[in-house]
Batch of 4 targets.
Target 1
Amino acid sequence: MNMAKKSVFFIGIVYLVFLSNALRSQPLQNSLPKELKILFIGNSYTYGNDLPEILAQLMNGKGIKVSYESVTVGGATLEKHWLDGKAKGAIHKQTWDYVVLQEQSTRPFSHREAFFHYAKLFTEEIEAAKAKPLFYMTWAAKANPDEQPKLSEAYRTIAKETGSLVAPVGEAWKQAGLVGIDLFISDGRHPNLFGSYLACCVIYQTLSGKSALELPRQLLKDGQPSAVLSESQAETLQRMADEIMLK
């Protein structure tokens, strides 16, 4: 990575640094147990970079052991998952603490009624299984940033209507783009490692009510420290996640 690319991760640090102190003073919203079981239902926005494993590593660094399973298919909608039946079966396979639901990238506004219908079917099934649903709000494509408000509105509305949690990942992505941090791979839609790391920071905050600043800043790959994400870059992304959670 050249110096110009590295420098974007320091843009906005001065602007964001005050947020760490502000978040440290926030009361704990949720008390998480020492072990969590999480089921992920989604598509490549979830399995890209192995997001569940990144989240497990980060939470393990906070003394929380996460065991997880995923039902993910490239390009899949919640409708497809529901009709296939595999996701429903996984919900009842064991006792989960949380089930993370991730819809296809534009479906929440391009097929709003279908999104709401199948999201409600899933949340009812999840609650019947004594787990808690969490919506993983995704991001607008790099070429269409103005679509983020429509995504945000749909995810926040369905979460409110179903009494579910929502992790505002897409909103954090939008803020990152405003300060020059590129979270996309070359297709302008899927996340690079930075994007998945930021997503996990927001999901952690949503579950715990705590700042992301004390999460681990080093990821492991095949048991070895990853050289792709530096500690300084991870800190910048943590601060970006904190900015969103203060809004």
Target 2
Amino acid sequence: MFPVDSAVPHRYPPFVTWGLVLVNGLAFLYQLSLSPAELEAFLYRWALVPARYSDPLWAYERGLAPDNYLPFLTNTFLHGGWFHILSNMWMLWVFGPAVEDRLGKVRFLVFYLSAGIGASIAHALANWDSAIPALGASGAISGVVGAYVRLFPRARLIVLVPVLFLPLFFEVPAVLFALIWFLLQLIQGVGQFFAPEIGGGVAWWAHIGGFVIGWLIVHQVRRTERRHRRYFADEGKLGFRPDGSWRPRA
């Protein structure tokens, strides 16, 4: 299931979401400009390599400072390929505006960065000896998905389900989508401990950690409703309430 659209309207332009998409895109274009050798050195410096912190000797031998913790943040703006960045940015594009609308711009930015750092910590703890650079905004965006589900438990999503070569579209509750998505991450994450060679290419525990952090802290950082303007009559999606739930016919 791939999310296509959200029924939750937003009252303010999602400038932070747009800015995050732009920054991620510019960082990816910079990666594309590097030669293979330069890119490898760049990723070992700015992506998250857990062995850098678990084995200081290994880090010093490769010119990496084990007391530099910036990669816990900077890795969240790097990506490993076109599909990686496009799928991540699309998820942010679908879920980000509604969450930003409820939190406010500054709080949303702090929330997003906190979820990304928390996801990086979760990945490092689950892969403490790994010398493979981990990178991507998936953990931070998982936090946004967790916040979305916590804020809008009755919301509905339009999802794409490819069947053979046919793209089929369905409307599903956001809670169901999040539950299926989270269970898949959890199964893969647990399986990684038993078969590292299978799970080593995806930071499953970053996804899990980011989602849990987003779900837990969003109500602590959201703005109260009285600080929002009221919805105008023509705002929102036809047939849906402001919280994204279905509005039955009278």
Target 3
Amino acid sequence: MMKDLVRREGLADKFEIASAATSTEEIGNPVYPPARRILAAHGLSCSGKTARQITKRDLEYYDYIILMDHNNLRNMRWMFPGEDLANVSMLLDRDVADPWYTGDFEATWADLEEGLPELLARIKEEHGL
């Protein structure tokens, strides 16, 4: 969704966007079928995408690490004790609905539609884009 948003804003060449998990349960698996369906219904493809775990290199490389929920934040603190997590933040001031547990992919979509434009606006302001 973020890749599509920056593409529509004409900023795709200014961003490198990736996704990584803070847990290991789904590493190597493709995007969950109900998530693939809702993305496809909105014209977005996740073809070839498989889950991978976040690494210390990601933490050092990316300007922004955006978390979906407080479990991700807890996991990051456990995975990277003593590391500077200044570039780590939550997308929203609350947890994004996790469709893995709720089965409600529409609620997740709505949360992301709320949070991603706000994130992009913040990045654009911080970087004068």
Target 4
Amino acid sequence: MHKTSYILHNKQLESELEFSASRSGGPGGQNVNKVNTKVELRFNIAQSAFLTDTEKQKIEKYCKNKINSMGELIISSQTERSQLKNKEKAIERFQHLIAMALKPVKPRKATKPTLSSIEKRLSNKKILSEKKKFRGKIQ
């Protein structure tokens, strides 16, 4: 996915987001008790019109701990004192999660250990075995 198509993709996904606000927990005085600053972002992965089936599967696999039983990706933010800033933070986290989930997996290159690393490992093993040999009972 190219960067420009990714940005368009992201803007389309943002139109499918649902937000709800509630009172934030923790200390904070009157502001916390009166104002709904905590923002919860919900995104239904299965019903998304802009994602392909493979992209949906990748997102579900990557974000499995943040998805409820109805297939909604839930992100909440309550760090800021204003609802707008918390909404922006939630959107930012959503974009980051989607980007990480859809990032192509880099194939691993098989490598051999170097001769010096093998020798170093064996010498360390020899030193540890010598150390442990003297831990036995004294006769």
